[in-house]
Amino acid sequence: MNKLVEKARSTRLLVIMIAAPTLVLQAQWLNYPTPGLPRLPNGQPNLSAPAPRTADGKLDLSGVWNRLSPKYRVNIASDLKPEEVQPWAKDLVRERTENIGKDSMVARCLPLGPQYTTDADSTGGGMMKIAQTPGLIIILNPDLTYRQVYMDGRPLEAAPNPSWMGYSVGRWDGDTLVVESFGFNDRTWLDTSGHPHTEALRMTERYRRRDFGHMDVEVTLQDPAVYARSWTVAVKAELAADTELLEYVCNENTRDLEHWVGKASDETKSEVKVAPEILAKYVGTYVEQPKLWRVVPRVVKITFLDGVLYGDMDGRGMERQFARSETKFSGFSGLAIEFIKDTQGAVTGLFVKHVSGDYRFARQK
Amino acid sequence: MTVVFVIFLTGAPLAAQWINYRVPGVPRTADGKVNLSAPAPNVPDGKPDLSGVWESGNQYFNDLAKDLKPGEVVMLPWAKNLQAEREGRDHQDDPMNRCMPPGVPRINMTTANGPHPLKIVQTPTLVVLLYETSTNSTFRQVFIDGRTFPKDAQPTWLGYSIGHWDGGALVVDTRGFNGLEWVDTAKGHPQTETAHVTERFTRRNFGHMDIDITIDDPGAYEKSWHALVPFHLLPDTDLIETYCENEKDHVHKIDPRP
């Protein structure tokens, strides 16, 4: 599963680039039983056991977590009205999307900054480890970046020097950890589509561990120079039991950047014509079998609107599918889809095709 | 020492905030300064508390063996040749020039136009070492939950670290290196995949700590060797963020001075 974790970070982007990283590595401690984890009689982690507490009675958020936020990872502003985003920012998003993200932090091996909080699609890529002490909470990322959240009562400074990771202070509001951050530079993107922010960005995260295996995170963003109002997006986190972070050194894989060429609109150039009555037969809900690694399997929904076929995985948003043949399509977050038919020609499922292999989804009856 | 100036032009550190923040809960003298000769603190369970921001003694980053006598570091012939070549080329081939992480133990001693300290964050089961480094801000995890080394570990730059308390010392054992690490910078002592590095952290008093480093690497050395590196606490300050941006420019890095 972990081979997918870092790859998945890039899956929105071009497959050419993603193919290079050495992420198929299988490290150890990826299957080491997490000490102190409550377990069921069969030895499996009891993820609905009560959330643990520290010696001083605070909720203990420590552990390895997988964040899940497929919708906001792709489009942080998906709940805003178009007029609530500055026109220059919308133009920039269009340009960055058309350039298939080649100037993104991921492509350039730079920190994601505020985007770490919502960088969490359903394939993986949103792993983090929290280490909690009374005066300081550390958030560790597989790409070897980290955040320090000061719990010693210090306030944020009024005019900090801009940084990639920002400055964070936290406090407990009952059982909710409230983290406020400020002092980001303006070079990072808020999502994989490229929504920008300025140095005035303020981010508030509210972490609430519901039980041992589940945590809700609300992220409120405020940047009046770009967005007309502050808004809040939801991120879920699932405890990644019995595993560990695996070292990922992005700069080992940057030599192929010159091959990151092309435009998003190139997809249309080699599109083939497929009869509408064939496309209409693909409409349906497809569930991954076997599921990849999460508690819940991934789901692909195929819709057909006004002569156009769309695919949506786990609420990332409807993405136009470009026919490569009668059964093969591209345009799915940098991946491909191939529909599976039985001997009678009925559509029974699909493959999501990724550099790491084909993932089978069965059509729901 | 020309070498230090040749590299690491890229990791321009942004000045962080809180670099002059008065840290609560530390012993102070009458004038308000942190009392660096106060006794070393303990955590509630009685173990030593290593928490703090620490800066290494000078020049160990360039030559970890600088205090050792001839004959204490005996390289195998291939390693000796490689070391001489690296030194002769003013460490132009240093992986840190390509924004790679410094390996272990080198990462503890990182300096470049000034020190790049480390910060120790301690929990009962995990010690996190946060690093500024002169290339990228980075961390190591030291598991002190009793686990043993993984078998057939995927090689990494920073290895896999497990620790245990031995009286007043935290003993950290690390294996699973990729063999691309350099032990130090100006000398370029080699390190191989067979390396077993032991770091013995002893906090002598509030403001001073030693890391006794043992390098047992039969792939490069005839016998294990060790270096005692002193560290001092940097009071009322914190790490500064550093990220390496111009990896592709390293070929243009030359010593600008005559």
Question: Mind sketching the topology for me?
Answer:
The complex is a heterodimer of chains A (365) and B (258).
Chain A: H1 2-9, H2 15-18, E1 63-68, H3 70-74, H4 87-98, H5 105-108, E2 127-132, E3 136-140, E4 146-150, E5 167-173, E6 176-182, E7 202-211, E8 214-222, E9 231-239, H6 276-280, E10 284-288, E11 299-305, E12 308-313, E13 319-320, E14 322-323, E15 328-332, E16 335-341, E17 347-354, E18 357-363
Parallel strand pairs in A: 4-5
Antiparallel strand pairs in A: 1-2, 1-9, 2-3, 3-4, 5-6, 6-7, 7-8, 8-9, 10-11, 10-18, 11-12, 12-13, 14-15, 15-16, 16-17, 17-18
Chain B: H1 3-6, E1 52-56, H2 77-88, E2 118-122, E3 126-131, E4 138-143, E5 160-166, E6 169-175, E7 196-205, E8 208-216, E9 225-233
Parallel strand pairs in B: 4-5
Antiparallel strand pairs in B: 1-2, 1-9, 2-3, 3-4, 5-6, 6-7, 7-8, 8-9
What strand line-up does the widest sheet of chain A have?
1-2-3-4-5-6-7-8-9
N-C termini distance of chain B: 13 Å
What is the CATH-assigned architecture of chain B? Beta Barrel
Mean pLDDT of chain A: 88
Number of helices of chain A: 6
Low-pLDDT residue spans of chain A: 1-27
Q: What proportion strand of chain A?
A: 25-35%
Query: What's the Cα radius of gyration of chain B?
Result: 18 Å
- Element-by-element helix/strand order of chain A: HHEHHHEEEEEEEEHEEEEEEEEE
Main β-sheet of chain A, in a few words? 9 strands, mixed, barrel
- Class derived from helix and strand content of chain B: mainly beta
Assembly status:
heterodimer
Strand order of the largest sheet of chain B: 1-2-3-4-5-6-7-8-9
What is the assigned CATH homologous superfamily of chain B? Calycin beta-barrel core domain
How many extended strands of chain B?
9
Rg of chain A over CA atoms, rounded to whole Å, is: 21 Å
The CATH topology of chain B comes to: Lipocalin
Give the overall shape of chain B, derived from the CA principal axes. globular
Global shape of chain A:
globular
Helix content of chain A: 10-25%
Strand content of chain B: 15-25%
